[in-house]
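Hi, can you check this record?
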Amino acid sequence: MAMNTDTSLCMNCGKPAAGQLACAGCGVARPAEHAPDFFALFGLPKALAIDTADLERRYYALSREFHPDMFHDRSPAEQAASLRTTALVTRAYRTLKDPVERGLYWLSLHGESLGRDNERVPPELAALVFHVQEKLEERRHARGPNGGSVDDTELRDIRGELRARLNGFEERMAETYQRDGADQAATLVEIKRILSELHYVRTLMRDVDKELEPQWNA
């Protein structure tokens, strides 16, 4: 009998199974023909604000259902489908669990991306970016080529300010996600603004941490 190559049909029983991780007719694991909507994958409404505890429960349920150990005695095609499905479920979970990754994914679902918005320093952060970069350069100059000892107090204070800003972004993001249904266009604009600013603050934090790292590990 010829092998069924139609990915919209179950490889085992031949029944329609498009969009299903497992055939509803016979339960056989199916290879994903394309990346599904991550919200639909977990049976969640397509909304920015989600119950992460509920998401976690759904994730573990799907993980158990499609874990490769459950398919050790199945056909090679089903075993391969199980591996791909497990990887897909894990990627979807990590994306939706993290507010930043969820925001980026939400933009992609609506045909949006940070694009050029992420190539320019947001005006609201221009002074902060200049100040941090200036202090980092001053510290490198004071330390000299031989890595001399310098006072870390000012740089640690800057790190504290950056951490406070990151926490503020998380609060802004949560508020924006909660009011998503009110004005979707405005929500997309605000998400792009928050994520762009967040990118730069995270970069500054990474630069500061890198400069402080030798002292932390000493």
Notes: The two ends are 69 Å apart (CA to CA). DSSP finds seven helices and no strands in the chain. The mean pLDDT is 80. The helical segments are 38-41, 52-66, 76-97, 99-109, 126-143, 153-178, 184-216.
